[in-house]
Design brief:
Largest sheet: 3 strands, antiparallel
CATH superfamily of the largest domain: Cytochrome-c3 Hydrogenase, chain B
Protein name: Nickel-dependent hydrogenase large subunit
Number of strands: 16
Strand content: 5-15%
Bound molecules: NI-FE active center, magnesium ion
Strand order of the largest sheet: 1-2-3
Number of helices: 15
């Protein structure tokens, strides 16, 4: 007899995620991922000016705070065949790289590390031994015994107060924690340092996009002008500031984040759970040429099926036979029907809530059970995100990916298959942060060179006026966001937005079953995992957090009549 356990809400994520898992003899036999709250913005942009859409849909999420705006401007520029100036392209690349690094570091330290790191156990560490360990791992200067003693005192004060504050509600002392006290203390110190670091790197957004969260974009380029001799816009001093911030960001990734991943990972090598589907999807991104030239992508593009790295299948978001969102287990209808799949250009956002009313124990997972739709590639479930990108980059034999993966696997002394796990996904995030950091440096150098040669252009106004547009147009804007492949599909009619659909990385990964009863990526990753203590399901958090869920992104639709659809109580 299996027993169903419920984790709701999953914390240290964005949005509302509920996991139900059937446990039999201490092992997860089946799992269900449900988005329990609705919000969002696909309907809001209907009939609006396509040039304004980015500003609305950017508000889908404040975590991947730049990605939806970028996907939106790309979708409109694709529909209207608008080319943007080189400088605007470079600035967008740098801004996308900025969110990638910011998000990965924040995810690791602030949202995920405590699934592996026991804060309370850090009190047992010897600060001197911690210092010796830190100096053996990296040349990062903050590593003296006194420094770690201070951190320990700080943590002790918090623990003694009985109010753990930011450390409250952890499963401290759980047998699943395996790090020696010194590694725990090192990670806690870097948790606190990363809090400071993350507020610095986002200044790149404030300089290029005016603010963060939600920096400004523009269809046809970027909104903030470059004028190196002025006091406004992007002048010389600000460009130097960006340059410095990029160097500092790369330094932190290389001297703190990556060594920590290696140090922590080495103690969990045999905890190999959380792999899952073995199908991986990437749209590709970070073009060194025009953004619609897929041959110039630095980030890989394609599909891996069944873990076969010897064959990469093409992915085309415009092909109606490739990408469809299914609703068989989602609280929606298509044209009055409760099942079926649609390509996003034909997509529809109509609610059909059939779940429990009021308080409930478990969901009826034999029927619709989530506000997320179910995206599938050729009717197959896919994992998207850092692990997908690193495996695709490896399969495509992109030198940076091959070198980075081989190096880190050698250091950990584990095979390539070890990447297909919760910890592998977490490591992949660090590896791509380093790779993307290098691209960001190159793009900034090219931008500085262009400006030095007198090119300050950031906006192409050739097709700004709707009178120059065709009566009907369709476009897709895709991007590799921190959590994976993101697509925005737009239909433009008579100068207005006729339909808009966003299919988001967390929608792929957190999706419920499809019409063929196939599991989504979270559900597959959980299945087969042993759970030591059903009252403290640390293993479930480890696996789910390794995807860095964002349910705000994944369920971006809203009830325009303000009707209550579901009652949620927390605590
Ligand atoms: Ni709200 Fe997002 C990212 C997007 S969702 S965080 O990354 O796009 O998966
Ligand atoms: Mg959507």
């Amino acid at each position: 007899m299996s027993e169903r356990i419920v984790v709701d809400p999953v914390t240290r994520i964005e949005g509302h995620l509920r996991i139900e898992a059937d446990i039999d003899n201490g092992v997860i036999k089946d799992a269900f991922s449900s988005g329990t709250a609705i919000r969002g913005l696909e309907l809001i942009v209907k009939d609006r000016d396509p040039r304004d859409v980015w500003a609305y849909v950017q508000r889908i999420c404040g975590v991947c705070t730049t990605t939806h705006a970028l996907a939106a401007v790309r979708s409109v520029e694709d529909a209207l065949d608008i080319k943007i100036p080189r400088n605007a392209h470079l600035i967008r690349e740098i801004m996308n790289a900025t969110i990638m690094l910011h998000d990965h570091v924040v995810h690791f330290y602030h949202l995920h590390a405590f699934d592996w790191v026991d804060v309370v156990n850090a009190l047992k560490a010897d600060p001197k031994a911690t210092s010796t360990l830190a100096q053996s791992l990296s040349k990062w200067p903050k590593s003296s015994p006194g420094y770690f003693k201070d951190i320990q005192d700080k943590v002790k004060k918090i623990v003694d107060s009985g109010q753990l504050g930011i450390f409250a509600n952890g499963y401290w002392g759980h047998p699943g924690y395996r790090l020696p006290p010194e590694v725990n203390l090192l990670a806690v110190a870097h948790y606190l340092e990363a809090l400071d670091w993350q507020k610095e790197i986002v200044k790149i957004h404030t300089i290029f996009g005016g603010k963060n969260p939600h920096p400004h974009y523009l269809v046809g380029g970027m909104a903030t002008p470059i004028d190196i001799n002025s006091d406004n816009g992007i002048h010389a001093e600000r460009l130097m500031h960006v340059s410095q911030l990029i160097d500092q960001a790369i330094e932190f990734v290389e001297q703190v984040y990556l060594p920590d991943l290696q140090a922590i990972g080495s103690f969990y090598k045999d905890w190999t759970y959380g792999g899952g589907l073995d199908n991986y999807l990437c749209y590709g991104d970070f073009s060194t040429g025009d953004i619609r030239d897929i041959n110039m992508y630095r980030m890989p593009r394609g599909i891996i099926l069944g873990g076969n790295l010897n064959e990469i299948h093409d992915v085309n978001p415009k092909d109606p036979e490739q990408i469809k969102e299914w609703i068989d287990f989602s609280w929606y209808t298509y044209d009055g029907k409760t099942t079926g799949g649609r390509h996003p250009w034909e997509g529809e956002t109509t609610f059909h809530y059939t779940g429990p009313k009021g308080r409930y124990d478990t969901l009826n997972t034999n029927d619709k059970y989530s506000w997320l739709k179910t995206p599938r590639w050729k009717e197959k479930p896919m994992e998207t995100g850092p692990l997908a990108r690193v495996l695709l980059g490896y399969a495509a034999k992109k030198p940076e990916f091959v070198q980075s993966v081989d190096d880190s696997l050698r250091k950990l002394n584990v095979p390539l298959t070890a990447l297909k796990s919760a910890l592998g996904r977490t490591l992949a995030r660090g590896l791509e942060a380093q790779i993307v950091g290098g691209w960001m440096r190159n793009d900034m150098d090219e931008l500085l060179k262009n400006i030095k040669h007198g090119d300050q252009t950031t906006f192409n106004k050739a097709k700004w006026e709707p009178s120059t547009w065709p009566k009907k147009a369709q476009g897709v804007g895709w991007i590799e966001a921190p959590r994976g492949a993101l697509g925005h599909w737009i239909n433009i009619e008579n100068g207005k937005t006729a339909n808009y659909q966003a299919v988001v990385p967390s929608t792929w990964n957190a999706s419920p079953r499809d019409g063929k009863n196939q599991k989504g990526a979270y559900e597959a990753a959980l299945t087969g995992t042993p759970v030591a203590d059903k009252h403290q399901p640390l293993e479930i958090l480890r696996i789910i957090h390794s995807f860095d869920p964002c349910l705000a992104c994944a369920v971006h639709m809203t009830d325009l009549q303000n009707q209550s659809a579901v009652d949620i109580r927390i605590g």
